[in-house]
Amino acid sequence: MEPLKTRCVYTAIRDMDLVQPFYETLLGMAPAFRDRAAWCQFKVGATSFALSSPEEAAAGARGSVIVFEAPDAEAVRAAAAGKKIEMEG
To answer: Are the beta carbons of 27 and 86 closer than 8 angstroms?
Structure first.
């Protein structure tokens, strides 16, 4: 199986207007994309970091979520099923 790549990391938050300035002002990250209060994405090196509303995040997501890109998602899913690991997406 080929190695996975990190596609995006996002953090589920409740107040976009409160949290976004922290990343912009204190960390110097410029938004690459913002969809109102639902999603704000920043480009960080070869990956993306985003702030997500609870409604936009994966069901039950709390805190930060890492989204991997797999060249063969079905092989990863089969390997996970064999180990009784549940996957979404």
So the answer is: no
pLDDT digits (tens, 9 = 90+) for 51-78: 999 999 988 888 899 988 888 888 888 8
| Neighbour-count burial of 77, counting CB atoms closer than 10 A to its CB (0-12 exposed, 13-18 middle, 19+ buried) | middle
* Domains: count for the chain: 1
pTM of the model: 0.78
Q: Which long-range contacts (CB under 8 A, 24 or more apart) does 26-34 make?
A: none
Q: CA–CA separation, 29 vs 35, rounded Å? A: 17
Q: Is 23 helix (H, G, I), strand (E, B) or coil?
A: helix
The reply to whether 87 falls in a domain is no
SS3 62: coil
Indicate the residue type of 88: E
- Flag whether 15 is in a domain: yes
Token couple for 84: 């009784």
